[in-house]
Write a structure and sequence with these properties.
Strand content: 15-25%
CATH superfamily of the largest domain: Glycogen Phosphorylase B
Strand order of the largest sheet: 3-2-1-4-5-6-7
Order of helices and strands: EHEEHEHEHHHEHEEHEHEHEHEEHH
CATH class of the largest domain: Alpha Beta
CATH topology of the largest domain: Rossmann fold
Mean pLDDT: 95
Radius of gyration: 21 Å
Number of helices: 13
Shape: globular
Largest sheet: 7 strands, parallel
Length: 342
Amino acid sequence: MNKLLIVGSQTIHTYNYIELVKSFFDDILLITDKRREGYELEVKELDFSLKLKNLIETVRGIKQQIEEFKPAVIHIHQANSYAFYTLQAAKSFKIPVVLTIWGSDVLVNPKKSFLLKKIVQYNLRRADYVTTDSLYVASEVKRLVPSRTVELVANFGVELLPVNVERQNIVYSNRLHKKLYRIDKVILAFEKFSRQNKDWKLIIAAEGDQTNFLKELVRLKSLEGKVEFVGWLNLEENARWYAQSKIWVSIPESDGVGISMLEAMAYGCIPVISDLPVKHEWITNGANGILVSDVDTEFISEAFSLEQPEVQKINHVIIAERGTKTANSEKFIYLYKKILNK
């Protein structure tokens, strides 16, 4: 049987990837930190936190799953502890290992500590195949490990759901409520923006360890009537907010391509995003979006310099060529075929 072992965190992106490639395999097993409800998939839970005991317990658990499941390919998502433990376990087997970089695992983690940098470098050296979602991230991989070849540049793709709603004066934010994503800066920029644009609303989706802090910030700035927290959303709800919003904002300190950016482009929002090198592969400032270099300014109104229909026309072409699930599924399956000589 043609079996795939996936190792990665329980985020929705891991499950989206499995949907992307499941047609090629007879069976798929996911090893993750926590089971996500609502998916018909065989899942094994293990602790992937960086602890000395996990060098024995988690590695042993992965080995056991490899022995029992007998995958044709092991595919790890993110060059962090998931990769570190899995690569330790996979040493005992002659099974090809693919490592997919998500962005922060090579752009941020190596800068946090010497140990994390060494772990990332070890992961990059030990994997048989490496994929990234952008040329910029691929260049960072090369910088960390000059001998490393990146076999594939591909993302997880987006798929539009049918949504019939009228676009409104809404700024939409749906990144995680973590320090990295600077949602507080979005709120502060919106406070300035709303002084001149009183009929606009800011919709903040998702949650995270900063959610309570962000809600308190909204209260302190007296923005309760203009800012709405909508929490975790399902695919249909998320699609509806994209389709209703004129502007989508995301200003993280560091990022990969970001599926949410591709979704915003596909649904016709004007993207207002951090001026990061990876974003230049998709957004030309002042043409199909706004690249923000100073997040302490009122950057939202810069979107008014663009004509929404023209932005939509450009972005729909870009997504059709490089951002659909079909296009990217074909790329990953081609890699699997190459690995398995099929």
